[in-house]
């Protein structure tokens, strides 16, 4: 799958976030990269930032949090285009959940691990 097609899937997954949650996402930029960091080459996505639950009165004037979705590791675990769509949706929700302060243990319980 081309990078452009993968980016469309990420965009569509973001569009599927319910409006009541999307409206609460604050100061976050979403990126697509081909490869995960060499230290974790199978990583599908990552949230880097300060979750909403940890932001206090001091929060302001900071660079946006980052959500990065990694194309090649995702494609490597998927057999069909439908698998890629499903995995992108799961990964996008997983990383947005981190923005809301939800940890990996809870995400696994909810089926977004």
Topology record:
Elements (H helix, E strand, L loop, with lengths): L2 H13 L3 H4 L5 E6 L11 E4 L16 E6 H7 L3 H19 L4 H6 L4
Outline the structure in words.
The protein contains five helices and three strands; from the N terminus they run H-H-E-E-E-H-H-H. With 113 residues, the protein is α+β, with helices and mostly antiparallel strands. It has a three-stranded mixed β-sheet with strand order 1-3-2. The model has no long low-confidence stretch (mean pLDDT 94). It comes from Kribbella lupini. It holds the Pfam family Zincin_1.
Number of beta-strand segments: 3
The major sheet is characterized as: 3 strands, mixed
Structural class: alpha+beta
| Low-pLDDT residue intervals, each spanning 5 or more residues | none
Element pattern in H and E: HHEEEHHH
Tell the overall outline: globular
Q: Give the mean pLDDT.
A: 94
State the strand order across the main sheet.
1-3-2
């Amino acid at each position: 799958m081309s990078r452009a097609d993968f980016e469309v899937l990420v965009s569509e997954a973001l569009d599927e976030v319910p409006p009541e949650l999307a409206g609460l996402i604050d100061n976050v930029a979403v990126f697509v990269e081909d490869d995960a960091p060499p230290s974790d080459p199978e990583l599908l996505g990552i949230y880097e930032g300060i979750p909403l639950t940890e932001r206090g009165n001091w929060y302001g004037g900071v660079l946006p949090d980052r959500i990065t979705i990694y194309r090649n590791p995702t494609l490597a675990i998927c057999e069909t285009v439908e698998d890629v769509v499903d995995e992108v949706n799961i990964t996008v929700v997983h990383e947005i959940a981190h923005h809301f302060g939800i940890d990996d243990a809870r995400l696994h319980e909810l089926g977004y691990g």
